[in-house]
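notes to self, project folder thing:

trying the whole complex as one job this time. last attempt i did each chain seperately and stitching them together was a nightmare. two parts in total, labels are on each line so i dont mix them up again. if this works i'll redo the older ones the same way
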Amino acid sequence: MTPFDYARPIDAADALRRGAIAGTAYLGGGTNLVDLMRETVARPERLVDVSGLPAAIEETEDGGLLIAAAVRNTALAEHRIVRARYPLLSRAILAGASAQIRNMATVGGNLLQRTRCTYFYDTEGSRCNKRQPGSGCDAREGFNRIHAVLGGSDACVATHPSDMCVALAALDATVHVDGPAGPRTIPFADFHRLPGDRPDRDTNLELGDLVTAVALPPLPAGTRSTYRKVRDRASYAFALVSVATTLELEGDRIKQVRIAFGGVAHKPWRAMRAEAALLDRPATHQAFLDAAAAEFVDARPLRDNAFKPALASRTLAAVLEELAMGDAA
Amino acid sequence: MSIIDSAKQAAQGLVQGAMTKLVPLAPDSWIPGGVPDPLIARKHGLIGKPVSRLDGALKVRGDAAFAAEHRFADMTYAALAYATIARGRIAAIDTAAAEAAPGVVLVMTHLNAPRMATPPVFGSSPSAVGPADLSILQDDRIHWNGQPIACVLAETQEQADHAASLLRITYGAEPSTTTLAGAKANGIEPGLFMGQPLLNEIGDAEAAFAAAPHKVDRTYRTPRHNHNPIEPHAATLAWVGDELTIHDASQMVTQQAQTMADTFGLATDKVRLTSPYVGGGFGSKGLWDHQVIGAAAAKLARRPVRIALSREGVYRVVGGRTLTEQRVAIGADADGRFQALIHTGLSVMTPQNSMPEPFILGTQAAYAAPNILLKVEVARMNMLANTFMRAPGEAVGTFALESAIDELAVELGIDPVELRLRNEPDKDPTNGLPFSSRHIAQAWRDGAERFGWHARPPRSTRREGEWLVGVGCATGTYPYYRMPGAEARITLTRDGDGVKALVEVAAAEMGMGTSTTTAIVAAERLGLPLDRVEVGYGDSAIPGAIMAGGSQQTAAIGAAVIAAQTALVGDLIKLAGNDSPLAGLSPDEVGCDDGGLGSLADPTRRESYASILGRSQRDSVSATKAGSLPLETMHWSMHSHSALFCEVRVNTVTGETRVSRFLGSFDCGRILNLKTARSQFRGGIIMGLGMALMEETQFDERNGRIMNPSLAEYHIPVHLDVPEIDVIWTDIPDPHAPMGAHGIGEIGITGVAAAVANAIYDATGTRVRDLPITLDKVI
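result (full assembly):
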């Protein structure tokens, strides 16, 4: 770990003032950033600990929810309204990490998790464009079982590791940000980036920007939702693929459906093609598989992850079938 | 080697050769264990009862000081830098920034490290436990990707870690072999294990296989595995003059001390190594580069050093299990009787070590067949020296063998349990020795009944929602070993009205319960309550040498304690003299019971230890004795066995496998401590589940670098992966082993991967022959 300064701001304004200086990182629960610092992947000169800022979960006028960035993952997953109205979010959070880590991790920090690509972590022995732009990518021809099949670039095939963010993508959440340019909101789909030729940038945040809250719009009455994660062991493993979906039926036809995949791309992957293919169609198993096929038609599997498109497609079909049958909330 | 050494070795070879021929023919009574240990007949007392670890409370409270928790005054902290190429040389190390960093005491590289001998490589002498035939920090050569090439000492661990990250190292890379294909192309050699060729040929196996009416012929693959004990490797070291004290985490205490003495050119008694508490070993807690580097740095800095490897450091410095490619071919007649059993294949090691994964060991005594061919060959690769990992050989060998037997059972339409029983040998099929104790058939019967094996539905017919349910079985096996060199010292001391006993053995306790079991056995043997017995262990100052390896420590300790007890009884009878009720009795006629000695023939003739010591005006009496030569393993074929049953659920959507039930039915002689034995069996089975489903070192063949050196990315089972594990045992003593007991540290993992693979086949009809069985191979 590289030596650094540490400060606890008295309020958000203080945090923003301190965070505007280059070389500063905001610290939430530290469950990812501290690991990255120990491995010298991240070498911030200053940490501004925002975990003590207000951590409220409030209902909004439109019937949605406003979740402050400092809310702990456990608190969000266990929140009464989240469990009742957004069960996919609860399930996604509880599918991640361990109870101890969820007790520490914050909502804001979860959005800023960095990839688990092992070449990204290997500061001494491997090339990584995300860690060191322009150095090359050792994952593309190396171990890439956990890597992207959609939206990758020559520079980077990493995946975003969060479970929670996959649910937020399916929920059309909005990220509230404050920074040197003043407060603004970013639609969740635009928050994380595809790698392109700048894989070092995971998000569209600018220097000094602080995530202050995440807003959830209400889900229409009668919408069912769930989250399913597929992994190499029963717990404490990152997703090979995961699916977050919401489904609203009218009779046996699909009135509205939202689908997001985890484990397949550099960002939580909102499956717009699959959604379009399903809208106003009968909710049949074949329709679900066809929709998944449409989503993965451009998939570019690598040496170790060729199983992902089929696995994700089957998982999506199973999840939608479960929702259509009304087995899940 | 000098002429004298050569002559000595030749003479030893002659003696060994003669022993190999004569010991099997000798009368049983000449052989250790020929007369059963009297403790076998003893049915009361603590043996076999559930006794909690005597050091358990200490550990739970955090009061047991592990290797990295010792503290010396003025101690420094070490951090290592590791090479990033597989082979070549260090062109330059820029140490300026590291040396200028806060708190740095010293940066040590090959340029300024003290001159040291190459640690004698494991097996080159009875006390040699060096990791590879390589010097440490003595030159600019790089031999593997991850080799420690510099050490920083600083006032705090954080300062050392930071400074190590500032080292700038440039390399001159040289051609290396880091692919399996390349290693094979370089040439394949016969495998040698502990000096013995890994080759057994009985009859003409290939011809008999070709002629057999029913057969399977398959290739199975197992990947590299890294060691992941909960306690990363560490040592705290200090020099006082030319005396070196090491608080280490060790399963070979005396040998490590001697190898360190050899490396630093010291007399044996100048190195004191203690290791009372070890957070898991599994074969990995031996001598690696870090202890040598720590001692060298302490010498150079003239300050004590704590060197604690990070988890990544364990992956870079401490070898694991190497990969294997195994062929199993079985030819059988229509009744399923084996006509030919072939188990051959390849393992990979380094140019500088001598540890092929001996995957045929478990096959040697497993099944009767008139024609047998067992062979391990090796290819060499530039990588970290591979080493022992729980049941080296058997753990991966049983995966191949027991999968193939399941495949043959399917081919023949015979129940796989029945197929195994039909091929039970009546003597050791490869060396012809009689079995000392073999009750595998009973283990199968007991296990099958308890698991409900015979009530199972037909293959691939059980489905619960998305989940296909299947069951599988496999045999596990591990030999009884006993290495020479063990000694015990028993000291009886007057204590109030009675006595207390100190039993000292140079044994290692890695957390499995050795110290507790030794206390139980010694208490029984001496006829004392458990709380009157203290066990001294984990200290190189104790005489003798005992390794916690090969599951042989229990037997080695047992035989040494028998020898010391016999000597002690002789001394006590002499002390008792003519005024004692024992007068005139020889040691053979006397037993230890109820706090004293008594005539075996006439229980009324007895005298307490306290009385004997009191009358002879002694405070204490002590006897030290070496255990008998382990000739029993040359006279009988001695093995432990298990019958394993597994139920899995395989998801039809995702291919995920979840093990839902597991039963291990063991035949391991007499069980000494029910509680720690269960824990050993279950721990081994859990490790086997990991091997079956998830464990795999990601060794990047482009540069020989291990890419998942972390418990986040190298998967071992978490709680949710582990079902209720039922364990039962025959508890039939081996009449020829001390206490009737076999060591049980390794048997647990053997056979497990095959039981899981066979269950997955039963559930899905998919046969996976390539570990680990991840979902993409099943789907």
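what i see at first glance: The mean pLDDT of chain A is 97.
need to look closer tmrw
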